[in-house]
Write a structure and sequence with these properties.
Elements lengths: L4 H31 L7 H14 L10 H10 L6 H9 L8 H26 L2 H13 L1 H4 L8 H18 L6 H17 L3 H17 L6 H21 L12 H5 L9 H34 L13 H18 L11 H14 L5 H21 L16 H4 L16 H4 L3 H4 L3 E6 L7 H13 L4 E3 L9 H9 L2 E4 L5 H9 L2 E8 L7 E7 L4 E4 L9 E4 L8 E4 L11 E6 L9 E8 L1 E14 L7 E7 L5 E8 L9 E7 L11 E8 L8 E15 L18
Parallel strand pairs: 1-2, 1-3
Antiparallel strand pairs: 3-5, 4-5, 6-16, 7-10, 8-9, 9-16, 10-15, 11-14, 11-16, 12-13, 12-15
Length: about 725
Amino acid sequence: MRYTARMVDERRALGVAALAVGALATLRVVLFGFLDRRPHFGGSEANDLGILVRNHLPFRDPAGLDFELLFHNVLLEHHQPPLYYVGVPALLSPLATLSFGPLLATNAAALALALWTAWLFGVRLSGPRLGLLGVLVMTALPGVAGRITILGVEPWHMALMGVTMLLFLRLREPEATRWHAVALGAAIGAGLLMKLTFVAVLVGPLFLESLAALTGGPDARRWLIRLLQAGAFVVVLLLVGFLPFTTTLADFVTMAKTEPTHASVFSLAAGWTMVKWGVVLGLGRAGVVVVVLALLGAGLARLWRTPAPALGPRPSILLAASVVSLFAVHWLVPHKEPRYQLPAAWGLSMLLAIGLETWWSWGRLGRGTLAAAVGFLCYSTLVVPEDPQPPLTPDGVPDVVRLEPAELRLWADHADYGMDKLVLHESFDTNRQSYVITTLEDQSGSLLRDMIQWELHGRNRRPVIGLPQLADLRSGDASKQFRRATHLITNRKLDPEELELLEENEFVEVASSVLPLPGPKRWSLWLKGPDRRVWDTFSLDLGHWTLWSDAPEGHDHTLGRTETDEGNPGRAAMLSGSLAAGGAEGAFAMQHLLESLDRFQVSFDWRAYSTDGSPPRAQLELIDATVGSVLHRQPLTAGGAADTGWLTLPPTDFSSDLPADIPRWVYLRIGVERGSTGGGQHFLLVDNFELLRTKTGVGAVPEGGPTEPSTPR
């Protein structure tokens, strides 16, 4: 087909319009993730968030990827394939926490892929006009616009269905190669490895394509081979990525057996429920009008009379098969949810676009009808949408309606309903990692616990880890958790014995909030012993750390901060300087003045090296700041290589080295000691410094005060 200049200009204009619509729709999803601040209470989304958080923590282990914990987590969910629930945490592993914005950005990426494949599919079938219509309809359908802002695997199933449809058509062509077959197998395998529900939307088109290839005779032999190659690649992906984590076939249908939404299968009531979901949640009133106009347009244009392709069924038949097969499979499965219908929205959108495009050829009236139909759909969904979410468990608190699991979520809710008072307390930002006990009055089973643990993790910049739920603070499990916990959250009235236990373990109530959730409305946050942990990643001015040196004049010693480079785990403190020839004179260190403590436990990462090839000597010292005497000296390294590489001082308790008679002040020094050979530069890097301490209760500097460092720099 030869394109005229006018056709080229029209194609370019329609392409730009489709790109603009797709970009705005994707940006809307990203902004939604950062603007929506309602608590995520209940429903499938809360369950998915809990799994994602649990699988993100092994990637954030200070010692590196904790593969054993990650493997254990995957086995806990062995009725689910691992790709989505491990893949998304792996993708976002550089982030300290999994906040909702970056998570929803993965949904935005899925929407972008779905719209791109819709454009390509439309251009392939008819031209850029159909591609633009497909993008517009898919963007404005309530079931897409409202489900794409709810976290889950289904948006990716919708996008992968678009990729699969394109590759189905590509594999029919004589020029198709085995790489096209591999791409088809990868798309299908990725969908199945995310969640097996992808089968529902796939089985219809796959059956039709396979049947046509098997019965197509010699002309279809090459096509059949490519389909078989794709199928073989799917099998390989499943064997490698799924079956090792699965114990029995019964695990696949655990949810359907234990949580049926409809006890009978193929019943009229179950079928009607799915139809109602599709109409009310998927289409809306404007969508129903669009369906009628699309069917009318297809009938008037007699689309069934258009020439059939040389191989395989018509593309519209494949699209219809994807929608029908999803309906049939879920009609058969007892456990049904509205979100499972989202993957069929890709095929439905393209079917509607095909029917609507026929109006273009009917003159001004037809084009006006087409514009009105698409405009009405966009207006009713994205401008003045109806909220289809009814209250599920009303308990007399109006706001609880908005916190219930949403079937569709069309507009962001900027209110946090008092949640930030609890989950964004300043103490969570001072700990390297916080651990929270929950003891809740939770009539919903575990929904409140899952909700608060996600909000703690998802809103904070630093990791906040939820410990097991405790029914009673006097239990044996509670005593173990008290030793590890930094915080406690509760919504129930604690009895006197529990309050006494909290006092014994140095917990103090630091915040409370009234939350519009089922059950008790007052929630409180308790903090264990303020200032117990000091976590230092070394701010720009190095905070309380200063340079100490007793080297003679002429030796330039500095204390600063490194830039991130290869082999450096972070923005560390860097101590550098030279020593006298032979290393007989002088030493230099970074030091921190500390109030005397009952318990004193330190850990940090460190690296020592020299420029002249001589082995560096590094040490840790505790100095009585009042009289200047050495309380403890511990060599970190002596002799060996010129560069130690990054090493770790594990958590070490120096409590026994502290003065036991009267409270004193102590200098903690980490530096280069006398005896380092050579006259070159010596460097000591310190990172991830952590101090766990318990104060003696002394609040003032003892008489005489701490001595000044010998040579403050």
